[in-house]
Amino acid sequence: MSNCWPEPIVRVQHLSESGIQIIPDRYVKKLSDRPGFEPAPENEVHIPVIDMLDLYSDDVAARQKTVGMIDSACREWGFFQVVNHGVSHELMVRTREAWVEFFKLPLEEKQKYGNLPSTYEGYGSRIGVEKGKSLDWNDYFFLHCFPLELRDQTKWPSLPVSCRELVGQYSKELVKLCGKLMKIFSINLGLKENYLQEAFGGEDNMGACMRANYYPKCPQPDLTLGLSPHSDPGGITLIFPDDNVSGLQVRHDDNWVTVKPIPNAFIVNLGDQLQVLSNAKYKSVEHRVTVNSMKERVSLAFFYNPRGDMLIKPAVGEEESPLYQAMTFDEYRLYVRMKGPCGKSQVESLKLISK
Ligand code: OGA
Ligand code: NI
Question: Which parts of the sequence belong to the Fe2OG dioxygenase domain (predicted)?
């Protein structure tokens, strides 16, 4: 893959802070793609909320009920929130604050981490390398946490000073939480408890990365998006949204619904690799982000993925035909890295033509 961006990179935060009232054409979406409104409380919905405490209850019925609720949430929504998830709220808040601090640093400091399309690691302002393509109203920082051989802390921000330590702890905790969810998903799909985790490379050897998203204030939020519709390419995504500003929208029954975040919860969403492994019993769900004229928004998206060289294919017995072709995650990920957010077109493209 080419190792430079097709055009000079413009930091959206810089555009926003310059005080422009009209956004550049590159950020204006075509009519059918525009959100049409600013997120308003009356458009917010509650996606399923799962209390994970019941998973550890002595009461078998309570445990089974929760496992069943997770299964319905996976089948009907592909998106849910978890509370009592075991990750320290203090750690969550401190990690987010560290990223807020990072984005507040002077531009020159952040530019030291400017990213390239070969790995995406670092400070970025676009996804995809197609020249002339419409851009999203967002800057981000992307980094690898696991497997350890991909973790290079010199590529993580050295400022604020707490950032590397916090991201290390945060990723350790979130990997544990994803491991628990993967076991429950495996059981719910009628697979061995460790099946999905093994398919991803095993407990200590799967992939995990993180994207801190910064959505600056936008003078014309009805014309653009913070992140265009996409499904996440990997396995599980844990989003720690901004408590103060909503913006994440999920496609549900052909409508875009705005998620109402619960304080201290994680939003869980299923990625394309779980759609493939489950042979479409679970589906990755399209989502997008709208922006706001009043407040900037900072969200942390943590991606639990197969290790890059794992060949991912439907987990089916002889009685069921596989719907998707096998592909390694490295190969799969190249597509979104080239094209940028593209709805669900990529996972659809893996569909085998039935004979
Ligand atoms: C993502 C994503 C949602 C958000 O980074 O893939 O969908 O709320 N983020 O920022
Ligand atoms: Ni996403």
Answer: 206-306
